[in-house]
Amino acid sequence: MSLKSTIQSMPQLGLLRAVPLSVCLANWGRHFRNEDEGMFRIEPVNDHLSQKTDRIDNFLSHDWGTGRFVKVLTLLWIFNIRAATIATFLISCLFGFLRMSGMGSMLNHWCSILFGYATFVVVLCWWQRIQSLVGFRRKVFLDKLCIAQYDAKLKQEGILGLAGFLQKSNALTILWTPRWATRLWCTYELAAFMQEANRPIELMPVKMAGILLMQCACWMALSIAYAIVTTARSADEGDMHGYQLTLIGLAMYAVVVIALIASMVYIGQWLMQELAELPGQLRAFRIQDAKCYCCAHGHRHPKTGERIPCDREYVYWMLRRYFHHHDLEAPESHLDSFNALVREQLAPVVLKQAGGSTLPLSYALYACAACNFPWLIDYIPWWAEGYSSGEMAGMDLFLWLLRGMMLWAYHPLLQLAMMRICSMMWKAFLPLAERTWRVVLTTVQVFMMLIIAMVLFMAFRYVYQVTESTSLLPAVPFVALAILDIALFWRCGEQVPASGNPGRREPGASSSCAVGPKKLQEKKAGHPGHSFHLSTAEAEAEGPLVEVKL
């Protein structure tokens, strides 16, 4: 049976299987646990978790040497962050309107704010489970639950089926680590998925999700600390005991905030060092250098001593079929063709986003929104009270409301700028990482970030405090910060063309890149007769080749 007929017959034969994403995330990713570092078997009790399907939403590509918790955090951020942000906004508006109404006395200030943040955490962690309860399930492919690799016959069927899984997948989700590009199975999955054009490849470094969450936690802590300062400042001077308790709580909270910021900066430096390795990996990519479990152990199971089949033979055989190479004089021409594909077409797209200091704009916006939406619970009653008090009307009321809007919106703009500045500092300090203690670099960066944040924050707050309630002078620092954000993220929207077409640029969103399809030349030096078409029709000649989302 040919490969094409095998793929087409997979649904009828029941070979095409997927597992709900909620199952993959259950118990904080227990199915990502791999005791044998690459050798696993489907336990009978877990065999029923995968289900027959006609289509797979996301194919999860990852290496088994990476810890399960960072993978879970990455998947939570990729698939749940939008729902968590929307839920936080809705709950915050609901509580704000409740406090504005007659039920306001039933809602304590701090309880309602913390409930807004709790909504974000709950939906972020359990959104897939919530969806599954109402019948909506995202179907993903996780090799450990969908195919077996411990038997030679099943292994051969599995690799044929793996091609079908990839062809029937709507998106390839790569949980990237420096180890990912060195694993044979990961590179094979990329080759099989790129057989068809116009399908997105979602690539996210596994440490990025942890850093984004820590940035959220830092900003939430800073916001709460500022609210504590405001409460202490407005406390009754006669109540010295309560005032002292507030200051003690603020001091303890400041320690937590500094610890969070320092940890986030320290981990971010490691992430930037890993990202710095990605350009070299892709530009010098050779699937011949990829490692696999079987070859590393001499094709013997390390515990039982049983002989295990060679993965490399299967993968090379499949690549030969993909590239239609049967040249006996150049037995590795199909491998070199795939190497050229990765270097010349995929690498420029990925390197533009993951190879520099670029922070994914879409994820940054979600983080900023989620951190600041709960404070609408305070702002909505304040705006409503100013509107209903009757003290202002007409243009004066409009200007007062506009100032209030800027007062709230300035915080997410400031957070967005600081997130970008932080990632730029990581890259700027990277050359010093090998010559200077990381503790010193972390201390310097934390100090610089606090100074920059304080200057930007006070630039608006001071103008807001000293001007009349209807003055639009605070719009000057507000607009200046908005322009700064645009400037910091401006280069994210530029496209990097494939190496074979260096003069071409196409517009695109900042959170993804797309490069126009370019068929590799049929005759290249050392690759006679090579032809690998990523587009399925001539009509797609001006469409995207592959969309890399970060």
UniProtKB/TrEMBL annotation:
Organism: Symbiodinium natans
Spans annotated as Disordered: 499-550
Keyword field: Membrane, Transmembrane, Transmembrane helix
Membrane-spanning parts: 75-101, 107-127, 209-229, 241-267, 361-377, 397-418, 439-460, 472-490
Protein name: Uncharacterized protein
Keyword Ribonucleoprotein tagged: no
